[in-house]
Amino acid sequence: MPNSVNTNVGAQVALQNLNQTNRELETTQSRINTGKKIGNAKDNGAVWAIAQNQRAASSALNSVRESLQRGQSTAEVAISAGETISDLLLQLKEKALSAADAGLDSTSRTALADEYSSILGQISKAVSNAEFNGGNLLKQGGTTINALANSDASSVLTVAAQTLTLSALSLSTSSISTKTLASTAIGLVNSAITEVSSKLSKLGTGSKALGAHLNFVNKLQDTIDAGVGNLVDADLAKESAKLQALQTKQQLGVQALQIANQAPSILLGLFR
Predict the structure, then answer these.
(1) What is the per-residue pLDDT across 178-221, written as a single tens digit (0 to 9) for each?
(2) Which CATH architecture is the domain 65-232 placed in?
C-alpha cells in the first residue's frame, strides 16, 4: 500500500477494532446492569423464546397455587365446623341417655329437652357458618371443590361436599321430651356420630390431597424458575472479569488509533 494522506489503512483497522471493543463493552455493561445475558430476542432468539415459554408456565402455576389454596381453606373450614358438630353430637347423646331414665321427673326432663333442642340449633348454625369464599361443603347442596391441578386447566382435584345438616343426619325431628323418644334419639345420635366421623374422614383426605399437590406445585414452580435463570441469567463474576479486560482493551485501542492517525503527518518530513 503506498504512503498516502487520503487513505490511512492503519487508522481504519484500529477504528474497527476499537468499535468492536466498544460493542463488547456495551454488551458486558448491559449484562451487569440487568443481571441477564439474554435480555431480549436479539441477544439469542431461540433461547429467549424458550425462556418466555417457561416464564408463561411458571406464571400459570400462580393461578394453580391460588386455586389449591382456596380449596384447602374451604376444606379446612368445613373440617373445623365438622369437628364442632361431632362434639355437639356427643353432648346430644349425653342428654338423650339422661332423658331415657324412667325415674326422671317432668321438670328435669323438660330441662333436658330444652338443652337437646338448643344443641340441635347449634349444629345448624355450625353448618351454615362453615363457609369460605362463598363455598360451603356442609350445607344441603354444598359446594364441591374443583381445584386446578395443572397450568392448562385440563385436570382438577375434587373434594366432594359432605352434607351435615340435621335432615341429612336424621335429627331434624328428634326429641327427648319422653322416655320413648329419648330411647329413639339415642340410636339416631349414635348413627349420626358414625356418619359425621366418616364424612370428616373424607374431608380430611381431600384436604391432605390438596396440600400435597400444593407442595408439588411450589417445587415445580421453583424448578422452572431456576431453569429460566440458567438460560438467561449472567455470570456476574465472569462478566466483571471481562469488563476489566475490555476496559483495558478499549484504552489500548484508543492509543493505537492515535498512533495510526499520526502516520500521515510523518510524511511531512519527506518535504523538509
Answers:
(1) 999 999 999 999 999 999 999 999 999 999 999 999 999 999 99
(2) Up-down Bundle (1.20)
